[in-house]
Design brief:
With about 525 residues, this protein is an alpha/beta fold. The protein has helices spanning about 15-25, 65-70, 105-115, 130-145, 180-190, 205-220, 265-275, 295-305, 375, 380-395, 405-410, 440-455, 505-525, and strands at about 1-10, 35-45, 55-60, 75-80, 100, 125, 225, 230-240, 240-245, 250-255, 260, 280, 285-295, 320, 325-335, 335-340, 350-355, 360-370, 400-405, 425, 430, 465-470, 480, 495. It has a 7-stranded mixed sheet with strand order 14-15-18-13-22-19-21.
């Protein structure tokens, strides 16, 4: 096939026929000469607000490919490279016992999918409930405040990403086409096919819930097994190797190969593993507040008069504060909701979420500040304990409700009394409070400085009626489990994997990490 880059079409002129016409003009062929055609990449070029364009990379199949390539001098025309994820050859070792995967989030789900598709029959254990039941528990929590410790926004089938925007973008280099494979699997199980080529693809929490069920059913059809309401509560290690695991404090089963695909909030499991000698260390992460703006304001800033032709816009902002901390927007949710994502009684954490249509009219994003060992001292679990302290403060500040404030009042260290022109979109109860009381002064100063700087980039970002909410504390795992080049921990047979282990962040990179570990298992063991 022939690959053509940098095809620009203004967004109000876009249709498939115009794209094909551009292809024919570039290759100097007729439309009938095209045997096959597909969009490889699609992005939006909004650098010139008077000329906002789609930018395409397309692959085209024609009869006389070699001749066309030979005669075309356009630097954006070349032979399309072969880009395909390839599984390793199966190994020769025999497993003494069944492979177990802990966690049914993206890492565990995709590891289980790849393994089951290739003849292995993994057992996946998930401390929470299946999607159908979990969704009801989350709705009840948002409406009543009744929290179930193992079935909530963070725990249960699909992991924390199930109640998010379903963003699938990643900056990870993808020389083995793992990202491509992840997107293809999502599309195969019900996602819109455009996620395989659009820039910053997203599924939406509503669609993601259905897709996770489809992947689950495929795993089971191919011989895998998933046990819900089943928690890893202990491990037995003999001479540095895993010998067995205990489920729900009562059932011990032999296990020599364990993929640990924990979420970043499995704090009780982190503590148990640390006590049993699994090597881990504290890692930097970020904490901050969610900000809410009019989505229309963001759309007009990003796309100008062309906003009406495009879906809800996002943004990405970053700066370094005077106290040398990185401050940046995180998990921006166009047309979304701020959600209570607590998973422990007496502690409160929030996140952002969007449905597929992104039509709430409110944009939200976390504005977070980097924290490290200087903030929480030395010790593998000290970062986690730092998170817990912030979440307890947030919980106490608004008596279990989400504490909120207007920017003007947060800036001046006072409590708001009423919303102005902007009304919040929040899942869960909320209450006005002084958000300064959650963080140390240095973090508050960094957020306040960043808001003023970001307002110079997006006019209105720091308007008096900008709504702020806290606390965004679980941007990524506060620990990293040490593993070698073969994904094995210091305890032989344990494979730390995904976001909870500290090796990924978000749905896509977690799924990719799950596939990496699954490939190592395949290359080592026969099924």
């Amino acid at each position: 096939m022939i690959r053509i880059r940098q095809i620009k079409i203004r967004v109000d002129k876009w249709n498939i026929n115009n794209l094909l016409l551009k292809v024919c003009q570039i290759l100097k062929i007729k439309k009938d000469d095209i045997l096959d055609f597909k969009i490889y990449k699609q992005s939006i070029d909004a650098r010139i607000k008077s000329d906002v364009c789609y930018s395409f990379i397309v692959d085209v199949l024609v009869n006389n490919e070699e001749e066309i390539l030979k005669n075309n001098q356009n630097a954006n025309v070349s032979k399309a490279p072969k880009e395909e994820f390839v599984l390793p050859k199966k190994g020769h070792k025999k497993m003494a016992n069944r492979l177990v995967i802990v966690g049914c989030g993206p890492a565990g789900l995709f590891a289980g999918y790849i393994l089951s598709k290739n003849g292995y029959k993994p057992l996946i254990i998930e401390r929470g409930k299946k999607i159908e039941e979990r969704v009801d528990d989350v709705k009840t929590f948002w409406q009543t405040g009744k929290l179930l410790k193992d079935s909530n926004v963070l725990f249960g089938e699909g992991g924390a990403g199930t109640f998010s925007d379903g963003k699938l973008n990643t900056l990870t280099k993808d020389k083995n086409f793992l990202n491509k494979k992840v997107l293809e699997i999502f599309a195969l199980h019900g996602a819109n096919e455009n996620i395989t080529y659009v820039n910053n693809p997203h599924i939406g929490t509503d669609n993601l819930q259905k897709i996770v069920v489809n992947i689950r059913e495929d795993i089971i059809k191919n011989g895998g097994e998933i046990l819900f309401n089943t928690k890893l509560t202990d491990i037995k290690v003999v001479n540095g190797s895993l010998e067995s695991i205990t489920l729900n404090d009562e059932k011990e089963i032999p296990c020599n190969n364990l993929i640990l695909a924990l979420g970043h909030s499995a704090r009780d499991t982190f503590r148990m593993l640390y006590k049993r000698g699994l090597q881990m260390e504290a890692k930097p992460f970020a904490v901050g507040l969610r900000v809410m703006h009019s989505q229309k304001m963001i759309d007009e800033w990003q796309y100008g008069k062309f906003a009406k032709y495009l879906k809800s816009a996002n943004y990405k902002l970053t700066m370094t504060s005077k106290n040398k901390r990185g401050v940046y927007s995180f998990c921006m949710c166009p047309g979304g909701y701020v959600v209570n994502s607590s998973s422990e009684k007496g502690k409160l954490a929030i996140n952002g979420m969007s449905y597929y249509k992104r039509d709430s009219a409110i944009a939200n994003s976390a504005i977070v500040v980097s924290v490290n060992k200087k903030d929480f001292q030395e010790g593998a679990l000290k970062g986690m304990e730092f998170q817990e302290k912030l979440e307890k403060k947030a919980y106490d500040l608004a008596k279990g409700k989400i504490p909120v404030s207007l920017w003007k009042d947060y800036q001046h260290n006072q409590i708001s009394k009423e919303f102005k022109t902007l009304k919040p979109k929040i899942k869960g109860e909320y209450q006005f409070a002084n958000l300064n009381e959650i963080f140390p002064k240095e973090i508050n100063d960094s957020i306040k400085e960043a808001m003023v700087v970001f307002d110079k980039k997006i006019h209105g970002f720091a308007s008096d009626d900008t709504i702020m909410a806290g606390v965004e504390s679980r941007t990524s795992s506060p620990i990293r489990m040490i593993r070698d080049e073969n994904y094995v921990s210091n305890i032989k047979g344990i494979y730390p994997c995904g976001e909870g282990s500290g090796y990924s962040g978000g749905i896509t990179t977690s799924a990719m990490d799950g596939i990496k570990v699954a490939c190592h298992i395949i290359a080592t063991y026969k099924n």
